[in-house]
Write a structure and sequence with these properties.
Blueprint lengths: L1 H14 L16 H8 L1 H4 L4 H13 L5 H4 L2 H6 L7 E2 L5 E6 L6 H7 L7 H4 L3 H7 L7 E7 L2 E8 L4 E8 L2 E8 L2 E11 L4 H8 L3 H10 L15 E11 L2 E15 L2 E9 L5 E4 L19 E4 L19 E4 L5 E3 L4 E8 L5 E8 L2 E8 L1 E2 L8 E2 L4 E4 L10 E8 L2 E3 L15 H19 L15 E4 L1
Antiparallel strand pairs: 1-2, 2-3, 3-4, 4-5, 5-6, 7-8, 7-23, 8-9, 9-10, 10-11, 12-13, 13-21, 14-20, 15-16, 15-19, 16-17, 17-21, 18-20, 21-22
Bound molecules: zinc ion.
Length: 466
């Protein structure tokens, strides 16, 4: 249960942006191939437990919005997380209030016996208005009051920022305090035994960090199909420390993943123009120009097969694409930059879209329930844009995406076709700087398992933020 809560907390933290706004669970920065990771377990076979594990993480992300249904405040009191209100010498009481579904400040004030006439003054300072405007169920407010009079209120906005409001006479003073932290570079490594997440746990890194690692190498390694027992990784990453406590893991600075004996390496680099990306040690960008799978699917319901029997027509008819089963309404995203060549009704395909990606590559999406707004012929799309939604229009036995990939008109298997890499090299003038900046990080990546931040925390590269 505590593990489950931990995951939820992590999810809740991940779902909060810096200004405290929540993002939908699917926008937490997972790249498309990672999405599919979670849903592929049945297709990928029993050996692949990570898929199941990530599926859990993903499904556990959704309950963030129903947190009060899972833990109401009385549960938390029972669990000892919310103690008795402490009463200080001046007679004021400190309380912790868990925000419930549908709560407004006014409702909370009434529930706690506070005078609602103070609300105007409380929300007068801009910092108070901005950070109390939206109340998420499950979040906590700490308050100090003397009878009906509110004396102070605080709210944790994220790992590092807290809103602090204190009474000043008839009004209130509000500000956001920021915890100072120290960033340290740490190195760890692991080997895949039963699962990727198992290896991450053993290596002492967060699930979020291993997901970032998988994202960095997503254009090189198919983390669903290519992973093997004995694969290994090493990673140099940031840790954010405050007061002797590791609060959070930050960016990955460099990483190596050895997949089926082949080593892939990446180093994070901020170009002179501010653009941040991951590059091979030779300075080639790892940004994937094209992702393999354009949606989060539950299974492959029909594979690419140029001589199969059609399930409805009941005669040999080539299956010129891959069918990805997914619930009606599942968003379909452009796998690469391109232009809409067609969108509309197209015979057995039902509602269909064709995208042109340049270099003779076109992709087709069939059986859609509907099109995304503005997806008309001629419209430019960027990788990741939603173009339409899964459905069962045309000749389809159930909701799925029929996905085709053609090169100069020739049908290719979308699951195995060599995707455009789009590895743009660094500008000539940038290479020297890249070499200088990446050398020490790559050195650290090579330095073996003993140079961990845990053993020498203060000697690791550190920068101070206030
Ligand atoms: Zn199909």
């Amino acid at each position: 249960m505590s593990r489950f809560r931990g995951i939820l907390r992590q999810a809740a933290a991940a779902a909060s942006t810096r200004n405290g706004r929540r993002l939908p669970w699917f926008a937490i920065g997972l790249s498309l191939p990672l999405f599919s990771l979670g849903f592929l377990a049945p297709a990928a076979g029993p050996a692949y437990q990570d898929a199941l594990r990530l599926d859990l993480v993903l499904s556990e992300l959704t309950p963030v919005f129903t947190l009060p249904l899972l833990f109401n405040s009385s549960d938390l009191v029972k669990a000892g997380e919310f103690g008795h209100p402490d009463i200080s010498v001046d007679g004021s009481r400190a309380i912790r209030v868990e925000i419930r579904r549908g709560d407004t400040l006014e409702r909370i004030f009434r529930r706690e016996g506070l005078d609602t006439a103070q609300l105007g003054a409380l929300l007068a300072p801009a910092a108070a208005r901005e950070n109390l405007r939206i109340l998420h169920p499950g979040d906590e407010l700490r308050m100090r009051h003397d009878g009906p009079t509110l004396l102070a209120i605080s709210r944790k906005l994220d790992t590092f920022r807290t809103l602090e409001i204190t009474r000043e006479g008839e009004g209130f003073d509000a500000r956001v305090t920021e915890l100072s932290y120290e960033t340290r570079a740490a190195r760890t490594h692991g080997e895949i035994r039963s699962s990727l997440f198992g290896a991450a746990a053993k290596a002492g890194i967060a699930d979020s960090t291993i997901m970032k690692l998988a994202g960095i190498f997503a254009s090189q390694i198919d983390f669903v199909l290519d992973l093997r027992e004995g694969d290994s990784f090493a990673v140099v990453y940031e840790e954010k420390w405050h007061d002797g406590e590791k609060l959070e893991e930050g960016e990955i600075l460099a990483a190596e993943f050895i997949n089926q004996g082949k080593a892939h390496r990446a180093v994070r680099y901020q170009a002179a123009d501010g653009h941040v990306g991951y590059y091979t040690p030779d300075g080639l960008s790892l940004r994937k120009a094209f992702v393999r799978v354009p949606l989060a699917f539950s299974r492959i319901s029909s594979d690419f097969n140029l001589s199969r029997k059609h399930p409805i027509l009941n005669r040999i008819r080539a299956h010129t694409g891959v069918d990805y089963a997914a619930p009606t309404g599942t968003p379909i995203r452009a796998p690469g930059d391109g232009k809409v060549a067609f969108s509309g009704r197209k015979g057995g395909y039902g509602n269909a879209i064709i995208l042109e990606h340049g270099n003779g590559i076109t992709t087709l999406y069939g059986h859609l329930s509907r099109f995304a707004k503005g997806i008309n012929a001629g419209r430019r799309v960027s990788q990741g844009d939603i173009i339409g939604y899964v459905g069962a229009t045309g000749l389809a036995t159930g909701p799925h995406l029929h996905y085709e990939y053609r090169v100069n008109g020739k049908y290719m298997n979308p699951r195995t076709v060599k995707l455009p890499e789009g590895s743009t090299p660094l500008a000539a003038g940038e290479r020297e700087r890249f070499r200088e900046m990446s050398a020490p990080i790559l050195q650290q990546l090579d330095d073996g398992g003993d140079m961990l931040a845990n053993s020498q925390p203060d000697k690791a590269s550190a920068s101070q933020r206030t």
